[in-house]
Amino acid sequence: MQATLVTSEDSAPTESSSSAVSWGPIVAGAFAASTLTFILMLLGSGLGLSMVSPWSGAGASATTFAVTTAVWLVIVQWLSSGVGGYLTGRLRTKWVGVHTDETYFRDTAHGFLAWALATLLVAGVLGSALSAALSTGVQAVSTVAAGAATGASAGAATKDGGAFDSTSYYVDALFRPADPTKLAAANTDSDAAATTQASRILLASAANGGEFTADDSAYLAQLVAARTGLSQADAKARVDAMIAKVKDAKVKAQQAADTARKASATFALLGALSLVVGAFIASVAAALGGRQRDDEEAIFLTGQ
Q1: Tens of pLDDT, residues 81-138
Q2: CA-CA distance, 155 to 240, in Å (whole number)?
Q3: Is the pTM of the predicted complex or chain greater than 0.85?
Q4: 47 partner at 20 to 30 Å CA-CA among 8, 85, 162, 215?
Q5: In Å, how far are 58, 68, 277 from 263, measured between CA atoms?
Q6: What is the C-alpha separation between 99 and 106, in angstroms, rounded?
Q7: Which helix (H) or strand (E) holds 157?
């Protein structure tokens, strides 16, 4: 019996010289997906602007707007990723001598790569707007955490060269004369000194979280009684009403910040979910497109 000599060259596996990644279909699918994403985002922006309104109670709430936006992001990812992935699968050339399972894996990977490239393209165009949307809640919470002192100390120059701050309204309300006809006869210098003292007390209370000490409240009542002609009891009632307004404004600001925080968190979580959905849809669509491409070619060759 003649023995067969097996050389090392005969036993070595044959490796294809062509790459398993077809970048042409991937880039084409990514551009198609990113373009469709941009169009749908513009459409969503128009629909979103129709939901909001500057009139109180006329538009959607912040939570409703955030949830609606996140749901729209899922729809955008679903449609754009499906189109981009399907084009990626249909445009690639047929792999010869490749197992069916390997073909399915390559198509899935091509769809995922097309989705990843499209996501990077969209993030490059809309990255600043997305970052601003996600940081809205953080900025609102930081503003409230800083306290009313930030707003109270933030002044803007008036036409007369004087200073204006957010405590001016409350100070004016404190020293509003009981008899408006006596306003012209008031001592301007004394009014300025009383206003300065009251402003400092308000700033100190704002830095303390909006809490007024008993001494500050009593002193404010004395200042109001001295400058407005009110009785001590009426002056104290005016001071207490002003303090209640300040605390109410603080509570409303905290509620608005908490609503913005929850809306931003919902938007971020559902936005991440939309990306996961987009990656899955792109992969499945690419596998479907690749299978249809191979099946149709096989039918065409059989018909010949």
Answers
A1: 999 999 999 888 877 777 888 888 989 999 999 999 999 888 887 666 556 555 554 4
A2: 25
A3: no
A4: 85
A5: 19, 11, 21
A6: 11
A7: strand 156-157
